């Protein structure tokens, strides 16, 4: 009844990490590219820091899926364990016999395995999720795993994924030896307000929703504010709001419905969830290397360029505002201040820098909610309602993507991909980290023969 009422093919705000619902914000793309770059270059230790509900585990699954067949990987999530148990879990996940408790024997077996994989030309990558729960002595055991190395490369790469407490622990003197070995620090920050809007609309599109105004702009603004930009809370709020709207026989989710749904989740006034000002994530605690990595240097240069452009744009907006006062005497000029969710990040700065100084009067929708200018007029790329964004991963090919997504590879599919990506000149040359649009569905197959791009 839920799907039929809202005219959806499937539930858009589920709790499982379905790959087709992945939404890559600017922060997610940067984190994904950082970890890819670190693994590709054999940097040894890497870290991925994010608040609960930000999707770091989903990102790890994406990495595991994309590297499948090209690296030998292990995913450890039992982090409340001893050193001996951690090594046993690691051997089990790698498919090795871990019978017995002799940790020296287990280390020898692991060393033999790593040498065999290195001779075969394969990398071995270990992902440790919720690493902030590891006791200090177990973290020391993890550090000693980096001693498995050849004269020219590391035999084992380790990605430590955890909450901000992990970064705080790594900054302590007692773990200095481990923190100094971490070459890449990736981080997932909460989504800014405009990205929350795109996130909700993306999931609705993939689920088959054809009404772009199913959630009113005012309702989306409240979702962005009360969820604090955390995808898990966004999903919970939107699902509850749709359920409540069904019970109330509404055709559109309004601000009133979202507020009631948030209150049911304890996210309204008096919410026990701390605000970001109470629990800030200090960037200096995440960067413990005196010398930045290559990726960090490139990111810093890009942010400097964006910052200069924003300063120029801000000057133009100021001049335009002064002219408005002189010639029109309008005392109510200027758009509403854009909602800031969390501390400033490159994505936040790009969003706020794109806001115009003067906004048209708010539009009133079916549910009677005024459209917040900061969200409706966000300068974000247009996305086809019949497509979804996909970030190219290592070893992706256009043929593999077509067969995986549509179970077919023919001229009709390629023609639709070219139409959605006019800037993509050569389908045979896909770059890692590049974002392309893929159709949600393709018409009936017109050609049975394999197509050549």
What does this structure look like?
By secondary structure, the protein is of the alpha/beta class. The chain has four domains: 90 residues, Helicase, Ruva Protein, domain 3, CATH 1.10.8; 163 residues, 3-Layer(aba) Sandwich (Rossmann fold); 71 residues, no CATH class; 53 residues, LysM domain (Membrane-bound Lytic Murein Transglycosylase D, Chain A), CATH 3.10.350.10. It is 44% helix and 9% strand. It contains 17 helices and seven strands. Strands 2-3-4-1-5 form a five-stranded parallel β-sheet, with helices on both faces. It has a two-stranded antiparallel sheet with strand order 6-7. Strand 3, helix 6 and strand 4 form a beta-alpha-beta unit. Helix 9 packs across helix 10, helix 11 packs across helix 12 and helix 13 packs parallel to helix 14. The two termini are 43 Å apart. The C terminus is likely disordered.
How far is the N terminus from the C terminus? 43 Å
- Radius of gyration equals 24 Å
Strand proportion: 5-15%
What is the CATH architecture descriptor of the largest domain? 3-Layer(aba) Sandwich
Oligomerization state: single chain
Structural class: alpha/beta
Order of adjacent strands in the largest pleated sheet? 2-3-4-1-5
Q: What is the helix content?
A: 40-55%
CATH superfamily of the largest domain: P-loop containing nucleotide triphosphate hydrolases
Q: Supply the number of helical segments.
A: 17
CATH class of the largest domain: Alpha Beta
Number of separate structural domains: 4
Largest beta sheet, briefly? 5 strands, parallel
Mean pLDDT: 75
| Stretches with pLDDT under 50, minimum 5 residues | 270-302, 305-362, 371-385, 446-453
SSE series: HHEHEHHEHEHHEHHHHHHHEHHE
Count the strands? 7
């Amino acid at each position: 009844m839920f799907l039929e009422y809202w005219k959806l093919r499937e539930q858009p705000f589920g709790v499982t990490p379905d790959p087709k619902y992945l939404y890559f914000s600017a922060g997610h793309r940067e984190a994904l590219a950082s970890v890819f770059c670190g693994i590709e270059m054999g940097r040894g230790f890497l870290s991925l820091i994010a608040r609960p509900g930000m999707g770091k585990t989903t990102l790890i699954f994406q990495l595991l899926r994309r590297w499948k067949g090209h690296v030998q990987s292990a995913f450890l999530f039992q982090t409340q364990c001893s050193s001996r148990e951690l090594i046993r879990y690691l051997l089990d996940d790698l498919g090795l016999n871990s019978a017995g408790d002799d940790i020296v024997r287990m280390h020898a077996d692991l060393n033999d395995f790593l040498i065999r994989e290195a001779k075969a030309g394969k990398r071995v990558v270990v992902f440790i999720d919720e690493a902030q729960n590891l006791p200090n002595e177990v973290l020391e055991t993890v550090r000693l795993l980096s001693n498995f190395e050849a004269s020219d490369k590391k035999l084992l790469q380790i990605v430590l994924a955890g909450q901000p407490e992990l970064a705080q622990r790594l900054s302590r003197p007692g773990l200095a030896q481990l923190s100094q070995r971490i070459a890449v620090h990736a981080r997932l920050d909460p989504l800014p307000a405009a990205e929350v809007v795109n996130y909700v609309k993306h999931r609705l599109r993939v689920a088959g929703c054809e009404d772009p105004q199913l959630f009113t702009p005012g309702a989306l603004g409240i979702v962005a504010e009360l969820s604090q930009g955390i995808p898990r809370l966004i999903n919970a709020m939107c699902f509850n709001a749709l359920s409540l709207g069904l019970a109330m026989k509404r055709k559109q989710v309004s601000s009133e419905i979202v507020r009631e749904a948030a209150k049911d989740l304890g996210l309204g006034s008096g919410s026990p969830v701390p605000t970001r000002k109470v629990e800030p994530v200090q960037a200096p605690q995440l960067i413990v290397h005196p010398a930045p990595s290559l990726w960090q240097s490139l990111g810093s240069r890009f942010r400097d360029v964006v910052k200069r452009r924003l300063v120029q744009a801000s000057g133009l907006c100021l001049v335009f505002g002064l002219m408005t006062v002189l010639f029109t005497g309008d005392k109510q000029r200027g758009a509403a201040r854009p909602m800031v969710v969390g501390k400033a990040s490159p994505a936040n700065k790009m969003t706020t820098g794109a806001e115009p100084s003067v906004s048209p009067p708010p539009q009133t929708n079916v549910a009677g909610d005024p459209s917040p200018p900061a969200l409706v007029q966000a300068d974000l790329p247009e996305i086809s309602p019949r497509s979804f964004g996909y970030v190219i991963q290592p070893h992706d090919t256009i043929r593999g993507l077509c067969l995986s997504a549509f179970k077919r590879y023919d001229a009709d599919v390629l023609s639709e991909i070219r139409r959605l990506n006019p800037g993509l000149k050569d389908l045979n040359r896909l770059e890692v980290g590049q974002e392309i649009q893929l159709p949600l569905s393709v018409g009936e197959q017109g050609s049975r023969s394999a197509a050549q791009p």
